[in-house]
Amino acid sequence: MRMSAPQHTLRRLPRLRAPPRVLNNRVFPRSPWTAADGAAKSGFLARCVVSRRGAGGHPDAGTTRMSAPVAFRRTSTLAIVSLVSGLLGWSMLPFIGSLVAIVTGHLARSEIRRRPDAFEGDGLAVTGLVLGYAMVAMSILGLLFVFLVFGGVMAAIAAYA
């Protein structure tokens, strides 16, 4: 005797998860469902449902069935470039790295705002922007200090000479 359809046992988790994310007035809910075994699954396995027909040697017992695919977001390449350039601006490329970090950081943030369903990495872009702007500010203050100190010393020497 063949059973009509495999039964999938799912259980609802208690409400311990974070509330849904809201970005640009769009709600991205988090699923409260998990497989019956309660194991933590992520990525590909999170989209699978395990059939639990039980003992009795049913042909579908223990098989994995695919549910609807879940869209995932990529980290913006410009955000990564902004962060790396911001770090390089403080170490190997003091002024050029900072300018690249500022430009790519702004480009990355606009790209993420334009397509929030496809890209993530706003924190990386903001970190690159902060590092870039901080280095530019430190460079300007350093140049100002050098001109004021050496300009004052040169003026004092010229006055007494």
Short description:
The chain has 161 residues and is of the alpha+beta class.
Topology, pairings included?
Elements: E1 10-12, E2 21-23, E3 26-28, E4 33-35, E5 48-50, E6 64-66, E7 74-75, H1 77-91, H2 96-114, E8 119-120, H3 122-160
Parallel strand pairs: 7-8
Antiparallel strand pairs: 1-4, 2-3, 5-6
Helix pairs in contact: 1-2, 1-3, 2-3
Describe this protein's structure:
By secondary structure, the chain is of the alpha+beta class. It has two domains: 10-66, no CATH class; 74-160. 45% of the residues lie in helices and 14% in strands. It is built from three helices and eight strands; from the N terminus they run βββββββααβα. The chain has helices at 77-91, 96-114, 122-160; strands at residues 10-12, 21-23, 26-28, 33-35, 48-50, 64-66, 74-75, 119-120. The strands form four sheets. A two-stranded antiparallel sheet has the order 1-4. A two-stranded antiparallel sheet has the order 2-3. β2 and β3 (26-28) form a beta hairpin. The longest helix is centred in the C-terminal third of the chain and has 39 residues, at 122-160. It is rod-shaped, with a radius of gyration of 28 Å. The model is unreliable at 33-55 (pLDDT under 50).
